[in-house]
Amino acid sequence: MKTKLYSFVAVACLLFIFSCQKEFSIEDSIKPGTSSGTAKFSYVGAPGNCINPIITGSFTAGTILDITNTITVQVNVTDTGSYTITSSSVNGMTFFAAGYFTLTGPQSAVFYATGTPSAGGPFNFTLGSAGCSVQIVCIGGNTAPINNSNCKSCSYIPLCVGSKYSYNDSTYGTASLRAVDLLTTADTTIGSKIYQKITASNGVAYYNCTNGETSVVGYALVSNNGNTLQKYQSTMLKANAAVGTSWSDSLQNPTGQTVIQKFTIISKGTSKAIGGFNFTDIIVVSLETGIDVPGFGFLSASLSYYSYAKGVGLVEVVTQDPFLGQVFYHSVIKSYFIP
User: For 1-30, what is each residue's pLDDT tens digit?
Assistant: First the structure.
């Protein structure tokens, strides 16, 4: 008998996981107005104004910038390779770009905004070292400070409004840059617990962290016709538990199968260099996802390892075939900003 397995593969955990502590940030780890990497290129318009820049998103004083706030400029690439660029930091805002130029000649570079504009008016930004300049016009708005007083109480997965993360993702060798921005939070009661409703640039979910145990609740369409809305819940981390502690959750996928998630704490307090950062207190949690097949037992679909750095959050994910050991997904933190 051949069973076709459709799995969420850690739906709850891959949705978005944040953390915040002011130890490193995009601004701290890469000084504003700098460029690094192996690629060689020049900006069209440098050292003056960028030629025909494309600016997207709304820039309002007191409103956190997100993934929709970008600047796209043209560059001439002479040598392919990696690049990491930040702009000057002005009016509470900084722009950064990271990636890999695979072709020489005219190319586009997309800069993502971080921070919160502190005032309205026109502001000029220089992109990278020896870069061109772009003017951003901010409109006046609500400049009241954001209340982040309790956002760091859960040290391995804190949730602070204004946090920004970028990750280098690789799926079967195909690389991409992914940004995750935390936009808003609000208290919501689900059952008998108070959850934070987290709105981010890549989705919405509900989080609860009590005594180091972080769980997430979300909602998805299930059943063969996809016409039933089901709540799913998953405990992604038990930060205070000992190494070897295991637990499991289950949820239903769109075909009606019950998907089982088996978590185990693999290690605690380890140090590792990840994405150019040296993290000194990491918890690694394994997640095996699969289904129980009558007559065969548990059939594993994927095996993932999640690394959480204290004060930083999710810093690495490795997902592999549980039988062949082949890694088909690898996500590594590239940069982060903590307000």
Answer: 333 333 333 333 334 443 322 223 333 333
